[in-house]
Amino acid sequence: MPDTFLPAPLLTALQDLLGPSGILTETSDTQSYCTDWRMLYQGKCAAVLRPATTEACAKAVALCVQYGVPMVPQGGNTSMVGGATPDTSGKAVVISTTRMNRIIAIDHADLTMTVEAGVTLKAAQDAALKEGLMLPLSISSEGSADIGGVLATNAGGNNTVRYGNARELALGLEAVLPDGSVLNVMRKLRKDNTGYALRQLLIGSEGTLGIITTAVIQLQPQPRSRETALCAVQNTQAALDLFATFRKQDPAAIQAFEYMSGTSMALVNSLIENCALPLSEPAPAYVLVELASPRADDSLRTLMEETLGTAFENGLVSDAVLAESETQRQALWMIREEHAEAQKRAGASVKNDVSVPLATIPDFIERATAACENLIPGIRVAPFGHIGDGNIHFNLVQPEGADAAAFLAQDHAMMDTVAGIVRELGGSFSAEHGVGQLKTYMMPSWRGGAELDSMRKIKAALDPKNLMNPGKIFPDAE
Ligand code: FAD
Ligand code: MLT
Ligand code: ZN
């Protein structure tokens, strides 16, 4: 009998239900499910359950409820806020969706994909591409993050500026609720005003209200032309002005508009293979802009060249490189997508995934940089992000050669310093990564009163025993 907190009858019932490959109990097998991508948390679990169907998942949840066992839903385990990591008690089970991995259907009339939760975002994108369609959600972790995870966190990413967050893309949903019942709202309707939109309650609930098992996702026709450019700019204001210039020309053409500070770009150039700066010299900041169009003619190229030409003349852009092939386009995107990995390699970092009104971004970056440099001399302020959405990853990397643990011990001081400025500007302390366990302490002061109270009532109504991802979103003590 393996060494686990699970009562013997429960363990036997789960083994009978899930089969040998559906339950892991040895620490050597469960360890990777108990550590997060950032390696901030090291939890423990009684077992990892890997149901292959919604029915098995529902039965496993009902059994766990019967025995009072806490459950931690997990997809690709790429959470930036420890959302999918169990606590250290070892009493919870991780419920992994990786075996629910079928693409059920692609509907060309409705432009939808019906897909199980454990399909990685990349696999879903590739399946759409094969059919001449596009799943317009793109994040750097898409090779590991799965459909259940991106919906549970309402992921944003590079194409939000054009197509919205995961929330805007989901038409239908199936989920196992915390009592083991199955909520089936698998409709593919663009219009459906029949009471509460329960799928939206599950989306962004970070595993606290149930386990998403299947979804209907909206697709788009694959663009027939695309133009991608990396531009050097003098400062954040110039990046914003460039965004406004493109938006004025053709707002519907902007597929992505990403900002990278000089500091964060330099980390990528020096720490990641094949990511040298493809411009003649380093600049204070950069923008990666991608335009896309359903037309196959060269109008997009003209739009890109003319807009950048004007931007050069106005002094908004000092240098730029345009992708001349798909290989070059991917090389430019790799530079953007490796930002998180480069910062991980540079040492400990504190992430402030904030959003502020667009016009305030330059003020925000200037003030937050000064405040953090004042707080920790030598700190590497390395912001980047989805500037077209007002979402800046105001990430702080430890001073070179500093002690990582000592730096991380000051994480609340750094997060509170940044958050104070964000609050004054009318922003949010978490734009896309969620609350998880890392930022629960911020909830009472940011989302207190009727807002947090209503969230608690919803949680208590659906999960009265607080067994579904306990310790996430809600602070234990206030
Ligand atoms: P997990 O990490 O496994 O889980 C995340 C949360 O969702 C947890 O609370 C978990 O309990 C819950 N959960 C997982 N699956 C389910 C399910 N089936 N049902 C219910 N709850 C579930 N995020 C962005 O929004 N935009 C970005 O641009 C972005 N870039 C990233 C880049 C890197 C390199 C990394 C490591 C992360 C990035 N993230 C980004 C954060 C992360 O990838 C996303 O939050 C992603 O959506 C999580 O998916 P996952 O499958 O890994 O979920
Ligand atoms: C990204 O957009 O690459 C991630 O969300 C950012 C991060 O590392 O904070
Ligand atoms: Zn991001």
Which assembly state applies to the chains in this document? single chain
Present as ligands are:
flavin-adenine dinucleotide, D-malate, zinc ion
User: Mind telling me the CATH class of the domain at 103-221?
Assistant: Alpha Beta
Mean pLDDT: 97
Q: Let me know the largest β-sheet.
A: 7 strands, antiparallel
- The radius of gyration over CA amounts to 23 Å
Spell out the blueprint of helices and strands.
Blueprint: H1 8-18, E1 23-24, H2 27-30, E2 47-49, H3 54-66, E3 71-74, E4 93-96, E5 103-107, E6 112-116, H4 121-130, E7 133-134, H5 147-152, H6 160-163, H7 166-169, E8 170-176, E9 182-185, H8 198-202, E10 211-218, E11 220-221, E12 225-233, H9 236-249, E13 254-261, H10 262-271, E14 285-293, H11 299-313, E15 317-322, H12 326-337, H13 339-345, E16 349-350, E17 353-355, H14 361-375, E18 380-381, E19 384-386, E20 391-393, E21 396-397, H15 404-408, H16 411-424, H17 443-447, H18 449-462
Parallel strand pairs: 2-4, 3-4
Antiparallel strand pairs: 1-2, 5-6, 6-10, 7-11, 8-9, 8-10, 12-14, 12-15, 13-14, 13-19, 16-21, 17-20, 18-21, 19-20
The site of flavin-adenine dinucleotide (FAD) has 38 residues, from strand 3, helix 5 and strand 10.
